[in-house]
Amino acid sequence: MTTRTDHPDTSGGDFWLPPNISVTRQPLPDGMVYAFRDIDMGELGRLVIESTVDGETRISSEVAGDPQDPMTAQRLKVFEPISEALTHRLETTLGRGRPTALPVRLSEPRGQVPVEEVYCEVCNQLVALVVFADEANDLGQLEDCARMMYMHYAWHNVPTWLIGPQYCGGPIPQRRANVLQVWPQHGPLESLRPEEFNPRIEALATQHCK
Fold it and tell me: 62 - beta bridge partners?
């Protein structure tokens, strides 16, 4: 069972987080995991508190994402001060541990994500990827999908967009969806109709060999 709270419950007292960051708490056989999440950046990282066989308590922090992903550095920038402050508070009660560099935690695959591969109409070379993040209803969830898909689109090295589910009423061609470009640059969140987004893909397919 996972419990959402506004602060980790530690013996050092309440630990308040910025309003844009939440934490979920999940028990382990010998400890507890606190997973931190930013409303716009998605999962930031986690703090793991475990009892060791020699009776000591181990506190470890992990930032979410691939080390090569530029967004991992952005997540680290937000998560590290929180991790350091909470670790310091815990150490005042449990005793000081050995300082180590904050490691990264690679994303774990979560089922199949539909990906459309777009090819040049002339040479048939791959020119773009469109990832359909059907369960991503906000920017943070799109960023989670981008983090999990990073190795895939970085390896292909072509322009890549993530598209969330359509929303609003009306005919399907008029419905908007959240669109986020993640490669080669990480762009801002956009709300686009198919008629506004599709020309970008069509241009890549038709203009590649011109």
Answer: 46
Does residue 110 form part of some domain?
no
Better-scored residue on pLDDT, 5 or 202: 202
Same-domain status, 79 and 133: no
Number of domains in the chain: 2
Choosing from 74, 105, 136, the residue where a domain stops is 105
The two beta strands, 42-51 and 31-38, are: antiparallel
Q: Domain check: are 101 and 8 in the same one?
A: yes
Whether 58 shows a pLDDT value over 90: the answer reads: no
Instruction: Write down the pTM of the prediction.
Output: 0.83
Structure tokens at 134: 């059907």
DSSP assignments along 2-68, one per residue: -EEESS-EETTEE----TTEEEEEEEETTEEEEEEEETTTEEEEEEEEEE-TTS-EEEEEEEES-TT
Is residue 199 a part of any domain in this protein?
yes
pLDDT, tens only, 142-196 = 999 999 999 999 999 999 999 999 998 788 888 999 999 999 999 999 999 999 9
Residue 180's domain comprises 115-207
